Amino acid sequence: MVVVYSNENNPFTLKLLIAANYAKKEVQLKIVNSKDPAVPEPKHLPCLVFESRSLFIANASAYYLFPPSIEDENTVNEWLEWEATVLAPSIAVNFGTSTKSQSKAVLTNCFRTLNDALSSKQSISGKSITVCDVVIWSTLYPFYKDNNISGAYLVELNNLNHWLKHLENLPEFQEALNQYKITPGNAPYQILVNSAKYLISGDSGSIGNSNIILSPQHSVTEAVSNEEIATVRKSWLSGNENLPKPKEDVMPVLPIAGEKNILITSALPYVNNVPHLGNIIGCVLSADVFARFCRLCNYNTLYICGTDEYGTATETKALEEGLTPQQICDKYFEVHNSIYRWFNIGFDYFGRTTTPEQTKITQNLFLELNQNGFMQIQAVEQLLCEKCDRYLADRFVEGGCPHPGCNYEDARGDQCDGCGKLVNATELKNPRCKVCGTAPVSRNSSQFFLDLPKLEPLLYHWMEKSSLGWSNNARIIAKSWMKEGLKPRCITRDLKWGVPVPLDGYRDKVFYVWFDAPIGYLSITERYTKDWEKWWRPEAGTSVTLYQFMAKDNVPFHSVMFPAALLGLNRGFTTVSHLMATEYLNYEDGKFSKSRGVGVFGNDAQNTGIPSDVWRFYLLYVRPESQDSSFSWVDLATKNNSELLNNLGNFANRAQVFAEKFFGSTIPNMKLNEDDLIVLALCTRELKEYIKSLEKCKLRDGIRHILAISRHGNQYMQSSEPWVLIKGTEEEKERAGTVIGLSCNITCLLSTLLFPYMPDTSRTLRKQLNAPDNVVVLRPENPEIIPVLPPGHKLGKPSPLFSKIEQARVEELKKQFAGKQQVEQNGPATQSVQDIPTLEAAVAKQGEKVRSLKASGADKSIWQPEVTILLDLKKKLEAVQKSKPVQPNDESKPLQNGISASPEEIKALEVELDKQAILVRNLKSSGAAKTEWQPQVNILLDLKSKLAAATGTPVATPGKKNKK
């Protein structure tokens, strides 16, 4: 049995009781006050006591009682963190304290976020009820049960209202409500604030971690030490003098003795198809983020990559498309290159493997390994397709997987996609030719093998030392290979498309792609600089650290085979010390597949109208670091609307708008008090953890520390209420200036930390802040926050960084990419007249985006790609319209009130409505007087009425608001 100590009317107690009901655990509820000697230290209510242990964080207690499943863990933890750091403090500030906030913006955004997430679902995680449903519902219960308060906030939020009522009627919730009474309205939140100073845990899943404090004066603070306060004060007062300058751009980048030289590669994407989102996050995007971070730290950094172009997959694609292998490589190299440019992947050089340099280096390394005694010749049983009259390379053979327990019927001759294990083509069950489908016959042929057993001792000792810096899954995969014992591995094939074997008697053979492809890192570097060996065979006194990024299926080649070959050369080649492998990114409920065209591909992402930075953000947010994760359209919209728009974008914009309105777009004087130093200390903590995370290539964690800083900033702004202070005494106005000046400096810090993840957004934000370029360098040895924007600094023009992804658009995209699609081969896919509304909406949205970018003064390099997308969308629309048959009443839609409107007119109204809504939100969040924003609200309501009339949708009538 567990005991819950609580006072009366405390809504957080519901979290524990409902969670216990779901866990079917018996709970003894004791109503006490915090001074009761039975309540364990630190005497905050509610408190859960069990097995001589006590938890006084309500979310941690609920999590302990009702833990999520492994598959729901990430989603649940994210929602618990959101409730703890955004929702609960916002409600407590507005309804649990004597001084009320002047703005509903933060709460309104919270409810919209929940409403969007609950689209067509009865639980937040999308499946069964979890602890995050329990926690969030309990926090909202007193609010939701008060008709006046809920009427002012929850009108038209049908998904949220349905969810609240649905959960209230569930037996686990009803039992808790019968056991423990909560009154509607403000009173429970006042009880909560007055009786439980420690509201929430910074880490929703960690037990006993009390971080965020909400005082009765609703200033959001956190337990920080005097030492931390002293450190941040000293850093702030030191100013921005004597900082190291960013490295100048040089070409080529070469290692420098005595400096930290970082060489970064990402697994060479295969050229036979369009890369999908899983490919992008698995290698090139992850490596790009780390490379940008290294440059911010002033490390001497080189990032190279390119397309892997030899091998049977290219030949297969050439047969499918009726082209030569070289034509296929040329075509898809440009496809890859353009997609990576759109995703802002900042290679120092992006090359390819069909080059003379590749041939030269591959042949030389082979000859040296052969001379050193690490090659052997064996007779190989190969499969011959008598109908096609050719030996079948591994990828030209398909059949049943030979590994026990795996019943996958479409395994390739080199690897099984079902179990992920390597396969020998001759071992496949019921093999068939991929080209004609007939069963091949066996023939013997002499081939070269890399003698891995001879190299095993060298490799073992190297791996013991090197693997300490690898990702966990890379270590496990590599050591499992070593544990099983290495066998000789064939490196040549009877093919035409590849690097020829440079020995008489074997010149009609080529090197197998697994041996040839990793050598591409060397040859591509040589294409970049004639001094390539300075990176790959460093001079004495110069050290190079090699980071390699890939998905887990590439680990054996980079952890065993390629290092073994380099060690066998005994020429001091740079080997990997940080092998960073991801798990797989799935698509909704299925898997990405190049060959089967399942999932969203890089060119599709460009055509959605969603900015590349938002794609980068979301892919990194769900990066499959420790387990497989899934791409979800609903989750993409939720993260965009909550984390980017409502959290990060809201904080960055509101401080700048306030500075523009009340301080002439100039940073005011700042006199920091203890509250200011506390928020600086909290942000410095996150800064330090951000650097630690990225140093370890924990990219997913790094982005969470960015969002945590913006949450601290939002809470600081909300609790300080500069919109109230600015109307007070001179001293209060001065205090408002300090809050805004500090908030703008925190925004400037965010602009730097964002650069690895969202480079376009970072540049835009820095331009708005007019931030100097000579102080952007992170200092891992001494992370600190300084006033980069000192008093008197002139700011630029603020504008919203992000836009909302509407639920209707989510449904369109889900339908458009419903699991399977045809990848464009020789031109755009055919579209039907049913696509006209979707294309019209996309054209209007993209046109508005282009106009906004141009009006903001953005560089041409930023808006020109968006113009290209707009022109492409217009061409597609025109092509479909030309094929559209004329139908009666096709041009307009008769409506209930006799008014008719064309799709173009409706779309124009929707665009105008979105612009007006943004204007109203900005005015309200800036603290403007009602006389200033009310006329704009009236315009917004008029636009809503016009849109309702145009679409035939009745205008929703809001509930009566509590005037008090």
Main traits of this protein?
964 residues, Methionine--tRNA ligase, cytoplasmic, single chain, alpha/beta, RNA binding, four-stranded mixed beta sheet, 49% helix, five-stranded parallel beta sheet, Glutathione S-transferase Yfyf (Class Pi), Chain A, domain 2, tRNAsynth_Ia_anticodon-bd, Isoleucyl-tRNA Synthetase, Domain 1, disordered C terminus, 11% strand, Rossmann fold, 6 domains
How much helical structure, as a percent, in the residues? 40-55%
Report the top-level CATH class of the largest domain.
Mainly Alpha
- Based on helices, strands and strand pairing, what is the structural class? alpha/beta
Rg calculated over all Cα atoms: 31 Å
CATH topology of the largest domain: Glutathione S-transferase Yfyf (Class Pi), Chain A, domain 2
- Kindly state the mean pLDDT as a whole number? 83
Strand content: 5-15%
Q: How many domain regions?
A: 6
For the record, the CATH architecture of the largest domain stands as: Up-down Bundle
How far apart are the termini?
45 Å
How many DSSP helices?
A: 33
Q: Strands across the major sheet, in which order?
A: 10-9-8-20-21
DSSP strand tally: 25
The low-confidence parts are 98-103, 196-222, 819-834, 884-900, 954-964
Main β-sheet: number of strands, strand sense, barrel status?
5 strands, parallel
Enzyme class: ligase
Subcellular location: Cytoplasm
EC number: 6.1.1.10
Protein name: Methionine--tRNA ligase, cytoplasmic
What are the SSEs and their pairings?
Elements: E1 2-6, H1 12-23, E2 27-31, E3 47-50, E4 53-55, H2 58-65, H3 73-95, H4 105-117, H5 131-145, H6 147-153, H7 158-168, H8 171-179, H9 187-195, E5 198-200, E6 212-214, E7 220-222, H10 226-238, E8 261-266, H11 277-296, E9 300-307, H12 312-321, H13 325-342, E10 349-352, H14 356-371, E11 375-385, E12 390-391, E13 397-400, E14 411-412, E15 429-433, E16 441-450, H15 452-466, H16 472-484, E17 489-490, E18 492-493, E19 510-511, H17 513-516, H18 520-528, H19 533-536, E20 544-551, H20 555-569, E21 576-582, E22 585-587, H21 602-607, H22 612-621, E23 629-631, H23 633-663, H24 674-695, H25 699-720, H26 722-725, H27 730-754, H28 759-769, H29 807-816, H30 836-855, H31 860-882, E24 893-894, E25 900-901, H32 903-925, H33 930-951
Parallel strand pairs: 1-2, 8-9, 8-20, 9-10, 20-21, 22-23
Antiparallel strand pairs: 1-3, 3-4, 5-6, 6-7, 11-12, 11-16, 13-14, 13-15, 16-17, 18-19, 24-25
Helix pairs in contact: 1-2, 1-5, 1-8, 3-5, 3-25, 4-7, 4-23, 10-24, 12-13, 15-20, 16-20, 23-25, 23-27, 24-25, 24-27, 25-27, 27-28, 30-31, 30-32, 32-33
EC number: 6.1.1.10
Keywords: Aminoacyl-tRNA synthetase, ATP-binding, Cytoplasm, Ligase, Nucleotide-binding, Protein biosynthesis, RNA-binding
Organism: Ignelater luminosus (Cucubano)
